[in-house]
Design a protein that fits this description.
Number of strands of chain B: 2
Oligomer: heterodimer
Number of domains of chain B: 1
Helix content of chain A: 40-55%
CATH class of the largest domain in chain A: Alpha Beta
Shape of chain B: globular
Radius of gyration of chain B: 25 Å
CATH architecture of chain B: Orthogonal Bundle
Structural class of chain B: mainly alpha
Number of strands of chain A: 10
CATH class of chain B: Mainly Alpha
Number of domains of chain A: 2
Shape of chain A: globular
CATH superfamily of chain B: MetI-like
Distance between the termini of chain B: 36 Å
Number of helices of chain A: 15
Order of helices and strands of chain B: HHHEHHHHHHHHHEHHHHHHHHHHH
Structural class of chain A: alpha/beta
CATH topology of the largest domain in chain A: D-Maltodextrin-Binding Protein, domain 2
CATH architecture of the largest domain in chain A: 3-Layer(aba) Sandwich
Largest sheet of chain A: 10 strands, mixed
Number of helices of chain B: 23
Strand content of chain B: under 5%
Order of helices and strands of chain A: HEHEHEHEHEEHHHEHHEEHHEHHH
Strand order of the largest sheet of chain B: 1-2
Largest interface: A-B, 86 and 87 residues
Chain lengths: ~350, ~575
């Protein structure tokens, strides 16, 4: 029976890795040793890696990371008191507020942190702290757009019909922006604005922020909505530099309420097994040194007064930030998300 | 058969032990084993249902008025479109390759399975890179014809429902091709020749005999395509198609309603259960195995002249669309960004991927064999239900399933920890959550359907007369499985294991969420770059996924072409 022989050979071949697996399967108990700190991160690890390396170098504390784009708060809830997580890192404020509401965070009372981070950029009870700021701006074609100022409201003006590119309305960056429009304009006007913006789109909302800039360069649209730090990243990329070079950055509403900003931030886990190390890391995040790394390497805006944006970031112009409270935006996210569905923003222009 | 051979090696020993445990002619242990295994498999799905029962708030008025009308339509059209396109592509190419001889046939037979190595999100990315306004195709056209703006010409948008159907079908049709090919190869030529003698044309034979005989296999292949299409998020999100799985994420992440998200996932699950039921109902109680055991080498029909080249071109098309184009794009990026990728420590990631995928493949194949064989020897409502229910983990989006895995495992860990603290005064911490075991568990649940379909189809082609003969000669259910069915099933088992392996290699969302600290697989490695919107830097990792998938896919071909009692298909 040749087939039986084949099969047995295959089983034998499989048996080796399976036994190897069985041997290593269970001892997975997460890092509990001293001198460690465990991070659950919604933030891409590449962006924080230089800072974590520097922290380990200076303190000798080993940093362990799990990165996932979603589900980490749910994972912390399920793990409960045995959760190995010490810090939760997020690329935006909504998740921090959600984490606090889910009860997976605790207060971190630290004079250093309170002195460094302005009250508007941390939780009133100090459960979470902003680590960097970024603005959601308009990238405009250098060739085809003459004006050097713009407002978010103006994006709904029919003069831009077929000229704007943006990513999915349900993306968290756009949800926060739309929430800010609801806060400033009221729900009704915000809906009319969103419909206006939808009908000005050059294509269906999809892809990422960089693809918007790419499409401006290619001539598909004149304006693209995107976060500031992508400009820094595109300039470093040999293929994308030409995209970045084709656009100028307009800070919307610079003349009135200021440009919509969001934060990346961190929260102390409710059952952090290495609380002291976690506090040390959090304080390191807002140290002058780490803030400069954020500014230089990622092109983000520091949260502490003593650290300055990089020369590149400064060259984009002055950032006047919309002072609205992050918690007020978080409260309007649900409404913003429903509005995106209601006007079928993601289906693209209706005509 | 009264004397058992002496145990000469570990497998004989195992066999002897297994046989000794199954003394009775009828196998009473099967029902219990199946019940226990099903409970383990169904636990995460049950957890999702429990989460669905406790939503943060009621999103249905909103969903019903603003989301469902189009999301449901888009989801169904996407599933239907991809199902039909892969059915046509997979069946046609498999029939051509199996029954006809034309230039390049042997090579094409091997190449046609390769698109399976390309993850859907990579395919979506590649095609939008190629076909977007800023991509090389449209740029070239504009240069050629002197068009300057988007209004000067019309070009089909890849970021559309049609685009998504095309992209998904391009990389998923091998599920149908493999099922059809294995099925056609294993059909007795005698059955086909009888049809010819009775006056059927070759095409008539295809429609009247080969296709009905292959129906369970084709249905299993298409079911995989449809499930993978409906649970996909990465590709549809990239292509801007508003399916139900996109609504799951908006509900969960932007409206902070995990329960509501689980409800939508339950709706998708329900749709798929209905689909399966409909297929089974349509097939009725028809038994589709043939009763002859006579096999001869397939007498190929030659297709000559230009028609031969046309057949070759027809078979090359899906391969080029599903593999060559995305592969070339990745290769181009990988060459440009090779230094970035080497730094990223992907050798470790590659080892982790291969290790996990192997474990998942072995476990899923073994489980699938139990679930499909049990109803044959211990027919009962339970075993039949289990066979059908065991594969539904595939219908849930990966992240939703991951949450479903997380909740019971963590509850178990915390229960054990609480007990150990109170009785023994020690803390056991988390044992299973965040372990590699949790990942394998999730993979098995997710990809069991992939193994089940192929093995079930293979088993259905084995005549029950063989079982009866074996049992009459004194074999037990277990020993007959070992001595009769397994040798006949070897190709199906090989195909199942290799498919699970390739799928596990590509798995992303569950891996991201369930993994231990500092643990990367190839897929998470690539994703880390994709999340930064610089997937080009992860191209080498993506290529490695593809290349690691190629080895099993080439083996797969051997398993299938060799799966013929009367000689290879070559």
């Amino acid at each position: 029976m040749p087939h039986a022989l084949h099969l047995r050979g295959a089983i034998a071949a499989l048996a080796v890795p399976v036994l190897a697996l069985a041997a290593t399967l269970l001892p997975s108990v997460a890092a509990h040793a001293e001198g460690e700190v465990n991070i659950y991160s919604y933030r891409e690890p590449g962006l924080i890696d230089p800072i974590l390396k520097q922290f380990s170098k200076e303190t000798g504390i080993k940093v362990n990371v799990i990165y996932s784009k979603d589900g980490l708060i749910e994972r912390m809830s399920a793990e409960g008191a045995n959760s190995p997580a010490d810090l939760l890192l997020t690329p935006e404020s909504g998740l921090l507020i959600q984490a606090k509401a889910a009860g997976v965070t605790q207060a971190l009372n630290s004079k250093t942190l309170e002195d460094a981070v302005p009250a508007s950029l941390r939780d009133p009870e100090d459960h979470w702290f902003a680590l960097t700021r970024r603005a959601r701006v308009v990238y405009a074609s250098k060739d085809r757009v003459a004006q050097n100022a713009i407002t978010y409201e103006e994006l709904a003006d029919p003069k831009w019909k077929g000229k704007i590119c943006i990513r999915s309305g349900q993306h968290t960056y756009n949800i926060a922006l739309i929430a800010s429009m609801i806060a400033h304009l009221g729900e009704e006007k915000a809906e009319a604005w969103l419909i206006g913006l939808r009908d000005n789109l050059a294509r269906k909302p999809a892809g990422g922020d960089r693809e918007g800039v790419r499409d401006v360069q290619a001539g598909l649209c004149d304006l693209a909505v995107g976060n500031t730090y992508y400009m820094a990243a595109m300039l470093k990329n040999p293929e994308q530099k030409v995209w970045a070079d084709s656009v100028k950055m307009l800070f919307p509403n610079a003349a009135d309420r200021g440009t919509h900003i969001n934060i990346s931030g961190a929260a102390l886990a409710a059952h952090a097994p290495h609380r002291d190390n976690a506090a040390k890391l959090m304080e390191f995040f807002v140290s002058h040194e780490a803030q400069e790394i954020y500014a230089e390497a990622n092109g983000e805006y520091p949260v502490i007064a003593s650290a300055k944006p990089s020369e590149l970031v400064k060259s984009w112009g002055e950032l006047k930030a919309d002072p609205i409270l992050l918690s007020d935006l978080a409260a309007l996210r649900k409404k913003a998300s429903e509005l995106v569905d209601k006007v079928r923003f993601d289906a693209g222009p209706s005509s | 058969m009264s004397e058992r051979p002496k145990a000469a090696g570990p497998f004989e020993a195992l066999r002897g032990w297994l046989s000794a445990r199954q003394g009775a002619a009828h196998a009473p242990g099967w029902g219990l084993s199946v019940a226990v295994l099903l409970a383990l498999i169904a636990l995460p799905v049950a957890a999702v249902l429990v989460i669905a029962a406790t939503p943060a708030n009621n999103d249905w008025p909103h969903l019903a008025s603003s989301v469902l009308p189009h999301a449901l339509r888009q989801t169904l059209l996407l599933g239907l479109g991809a199902g039909l396109l892969t059915l046509a592509t997979g069946t046609a190419t498999a029939w051509l390759v199996t029954m006809y001889r034309f230039p390049g046939r042997v090579l094409l037979d091997r190449l046609l399975v390769l698109p399976l190595a390309i993850p859907t999100y990579i395919a979506a990315y590649s095609y939008s890179e190629l076909l977007d306004y800023a991509g090389p195709v449209q740029t070239t056209l504009r240069g050629l014809f002197g068009w300057t703006t988007v209004h000067d010409y019309w070009f089909p948008s890849i970021r559309s429902l049609g685009g998504a159907v095309f992209v998904m079908s391009a990389v998923l049709y091998p599920y149908v091709y493999l099922a059809a090919r294995a099925s056609f190869v294993q059909q007795s030529v005698c059955a086909l020749e009888v049809a010819r003698t009775l006056g059927r044309t070759p095409m008539g034979t295809f429609w009247a005999v080969a296709l009905p005989l292959s129906r369970p296999a084709l249905a299993a292949g298409v079911a995989l395509v449809v499930m993978e299409t409906l649970n996909d998020l990465g590709a549809v999100q990239h292509l801007g198609v508003e399916t139900l799985s996109a609504s799951i994420y908006a509900t969960w992440l932007q409206r902070s309603n995990l329960g509501g998200a689980a409800q939508i996932a339950t709706v998708i699950l329900g749709l798929i259960v209905l689909l399966f039921a409909a297929e089974r109902f349509a097939r009725g109680g028809a038994k589709v195995h043939h009763t002859t055991g006579r096999y001869r080498a397939i007498p190929f029909q030659d297709i000559e002249g230009w028609r031969g080249y046309a057949a070759a071109a027809l078979c090359a098309l899906p391969f080029v669309a599903g593999f060559v184009l995305p592969f070339l794009l990745l290769a181009k990026f990988a060459l440009t960004h090779i230094s970035v990728a080497i730094e990223g420590g992907f050798l470790r990631a590659a080892w982790n991927s291969i290790f996990l995928a192997t474990a998942a493949a072995a476990a899923a194949t073994a489980l699938a064999l139990v679930f499909t064989y049990a109803p044959r020897v211990a027919a009962s409502g339970l075993t039949r239900f289990a066979r059908r229910a065991a594969g539904f983990g595939y219908a849930l989006p990966g992240t939703v399933l991951a949450i479903g895995v997380l909740v019971p495992l963590a509850a178990f860990d915390n229960f054990v920890d609480g007990w150990a603290r109170s009785v023994l005064g020690i803390s056991t911490g988390l044992i299973l959550s965040g372990s590699i075991a949790a990942l394998v568990y999730a993979y098995v649940i997710r990809f069991l359907a992939v193994a089940l379909g192929g093995i079930e189809a293979g088993l259905e082609r084995i005549s029950h007369n063989l079982d009866a003969a074996a049992r009459a000669l004194g074999e037990t259910a277990m020993s007959a499985l070992w001595r009769v069915h397994l040798p006949l099933l070897a190709p199906s088992l090989g195909v199942a294991a290799l498919l699970v392996f390739v799928d596990a290699l590509k798995e992303l969302p569950a891996t991201l969420l369930l993994r231990p600290f500092n643990f990367e697989t190839l897929a998470t490695h690539v994703y880390a770059f994709a999340a930064l919107e610089q997937i080009e830097s992860g191209a080498l990792g993506a290529l490695t996924i593809v290349l690691a998938g190629l080895v099993p896919l080439i083996l797969l071909h051997r398993a299938i072409a060799g799966g013929r009692a009367g000689g290879s298909g070559d």
